[in-house]
Amino acid sequence: MRNVFPLVILITVLAASSIIGAPLSIYEIEADLCVVDHRLTGQQRLTVTNTFGEELSSLLMLLLPNFSREKNPYLGPRAIDATFVRGFDPSYMEIDSVIHLDDGLLSPLRFDLLAAPPGMQTFSLKETILAIRLNRPLAVGETISIQISFRTRFPHIKSGDMGHFQRIFTWRFGWHPILTSFQGTEAEAMVAGKIPWRFELPAAHHHLTLTLPREMVLISGADFIERLTTNKKFHRYRLWNDRPARSIAIVAGPDYRRFALDGLPIPIEVFYLPGHEETARLFATYAVNALQFFVERFGQYSRRRITIVQSPNPLGISMAADGIFFMANFFFTHRHVTLPGVLNRLAEFVLAHEIAHQWWGIGIGVDFNAQNWLSEGLVQYMSISYFEYRHGEFGPNLFELERAGLLEGIFRSQFGFFNLREHMHELPYIIARARGFDEAIINPQSEVRYANETMMRIYQKGYLVARALSAKVGSEEFVTALRDAHYRFSDRIITLCDLQNLLEEQTGIDLDQFVYTWLLTAGSVDYSLEIIKREKIDKIYYTTVVVRRDGGTPQRVVIQAITTREIIRIDWDGVAEEETLILKTDAPVRRVTIDPDHLLPDRHRLNNHSPTRVVLVTTYNQLPLDAYLIRTEPLAGIVMISYLDRLTVTIGRDFAGIHIRYGRHHDFLGHLSIAGGELTGSVAYSFTGFSQPATGSAATLWVPSYFVTISGHRRLTAAGLLHYLSLQYTRIEMVRRQTTTTVALDLIPHYGGRISISTYDEAFLAPNIYLLGNLSVGVRIGELPSVMQFGLPEMHTFGTVVNGYWLLLPIRGNYRLFGRLALKIPAPVEDHFNVANIAMIDSATNQIFIAAGAVGQSLNQLVAIVPQVEVGVEVSFNLSLLGGLMRMRFTIGYAYPLLGQGFPGGRIFLHLS
Length: 913
Prior knowledge:
Layout: H1 7-20, E1 26-34, E2 39-49, E3 56-62, H2 77-83, E4 92-102, E5 105-108, E6 110-114, E7 129-138, E8 143-153, E9 163-165, E10 168-171, E11 178-179, H3 184-191, E12 205-213, E13 217-220, E14 224-230, E15 234-240, E16 250-253, E17 257-261, E18 268-272, H4 277-298, E19 306-311, E20 319-321, E21 324-328, H5 329-333, H6 344-356, H7 373-391, H8 406-415, H9 420-434, H10 454-473, H11 475-489, H12 496-507, H13 512-520, E22 525-537, E23 540-551, E24 557-563, E25 567-572, E26 578-585, E27 589-594, E28 609-610, E29 614-617, E30 628-633, E31 638-643, E32 647-651, E33 655-662, E34 666-675, E35 678-691, E36 703-717, E37 720-733, E38 739-748, E39 752-766, E40 769-782, E41 800-802, E42 805-807, E43 815-826, E44 833-835, E45 839-856, H14 859-864, E46 868-881, E47 886-899, E48 907-912
Parallel strand pairs: 1-12, 18-19, 19-21, 29-30
Antiparallel strand pairs: 1-2, 2-8, 3-7, 3-11, 4-5, 4-8, 6-7, 9-10, 10-16, 12-15, 13-16, 14-15, 17-18, 20-21, 22-23, 23-26, 24-25, 24-27, 27-28, 30-31, 31-32, 32-33, 33-34, 34-35, 35-36, 36-37, 37-38, 38-39, 39-40, 40-43, 41-42, 43-45, 44-45, 45-46, 46-47, 47-48
């Protein structure tokens, strides 16, 4: 391959390497993108210096696309269709040749394609590691140049990365072979599975010459992009950085437009799709604000410019790479849905999060397998710090609703209370911890027990632990240490030990116990306090308070006392697990609170106050994490008492209800009402069981797999009071297939009872096309009172004529048989179809169905009766409202009776869920 790397750039790169430390690898790549074959064909010259501390006989490189070469055998068609556009489409990288470049001589090198160990996933591991066998051992400090010819295929995928979607090609990391950060003896142990697999992206110097079809717009985070040649069919570009990077990310699409703020020290550009220039301008201003905040506190931005691109993916995923930030299409298309600008602040936070990765995760590299907290947890700390600097730390701050209006008022009353930190970070952690889904933050995937809470563990709890660490060492000292890490570890890989050593060096505080408790184990803490005595002596008020720490580590925590005159704050060192404090004040103490600023990740905040805090609201909704909520609806005559998701009590004029959730498995429910002068209602207990299905991940996933409910009922009927006991068992499967089976038994004293069995299953016919089947059978046991007999509520045309009018009336019987078969196919609806800015149609599906059912008073009658049979079609629209924060499904259909007593001419039906 022709050496396209200019000599002056090579000298600059080598000089920069000597300043940083050990020489970094150099990639010189020439590649052509064929949009017809969805393939990138290239040659790569790799220059690498042996800095691995031992003589090397081979070099290992990662072929990341091959981790998606084989379809995940553990996932069902629904999961595959949710990811791929038209069924599974593989990505892969093929290696055609490897050549040693030695003083102008070309020497072919033998290479093997090895399988990675199941460290992060358990499928598609073959040919994921390129092992290049050197002709002679490479001594420590020696440099070698290797040329690799490769071909990379882009799959048709919805994730917006490592593939193509809507004629837009996107790939952030690893579209070419990349040298692993481990070689020699350590690499052999990792490949053999003897030590945990590390997933690291080493920084290197990149230079790319890329040829694209002329109609494609090239977007990249590279520092420099130069168009070399142009003809009728192709553009040829040169891209390079003036300092190391993890990758050169590439985006190529035909319709992108550019908005830029070029007159800044760090120019900012936004590439957007038609119709979204206003959003592009807004996001550019957000980037200006975030960049200024980060630079002032955490160190210089390492790239020449900021590039923001509208990612076409429909999954709502935003991402980052070196110098480039992919904002999910959702933030462009849904920003004004129902309420103008409802997503503005959420988009600002997400963009700030992605920009912060230039400091942690990309600027400073990490092991994404076991130590991803060093990326996501610290980036959350940076981005939430920025968000709270801009919009306040406490109170409502997530939604910007400054204008008056009917919809604005309704939204403000129901959702306006949201606080980014409390409700998007603390609350998920508190709920997950209460359900027993908590574990060590620093953990390789193969040892993760609760993959269902991976996002919570790394992002939400990760942020809370970073916030607690900041509180322990001091917020200014913590920021100083992060800035120091940026200068010391940029372009390198940092470990937890490195960060701990740096913090201890900065502050002189021993962090062994903190790190062990909060990062290496499933640590948690519950702070509580209680006023046990009050007295007044000589005009001085003495308040005796017992403070407690259950779990966690000794750490300074604030105790706040509110008197009738002032607010007093003192520090408790938290060394003892329980201590008695006496507060001396000039006025009576009304309330004492521990950790009022929520600096520590307390798993149970209700006991943080004495007396227990109660919040009363009559108009605007709230969701306090540390108080009982009493909400009244005067017009409806309803009072609700609640605490998070653990307790809900509803009291009305003639009814009352309660729901208690305990742990992972248990729900208790009750309902009472007065009807006809009689007290009626029900009590129920529900148990949720979980399974751990294989998913292709090395981590263990917990999913609900069955529900058992036992309930007792007291019901008023025309014949008097009816008492009965219900037992229900529901089995569900969601990973390999979509199926549900329910068995229900009702036992009625003096009558007998009934049993019903229903099942739902589906057969995969083709990508996004399914055959859906429902079957339900009901049988009496003894006699059934009329109100407990079976009906056919699923039928749309079943009814009778009363006084000349057609009515859909329930027809009852002691036996029931119902079945429905439907063909489900996607509807040809444009993606994200805007409905007058009120709602957005995200997707739609069609169903053609036939349904048949019958009920009878006896089994013989059921067999002999003419069944009700109907055919029909329906279209279901998946709608987004309030910027996509509220989702619903609207179904419109038409059913026509074939047999039985059906509505003449058929009937149109509507359904909203």
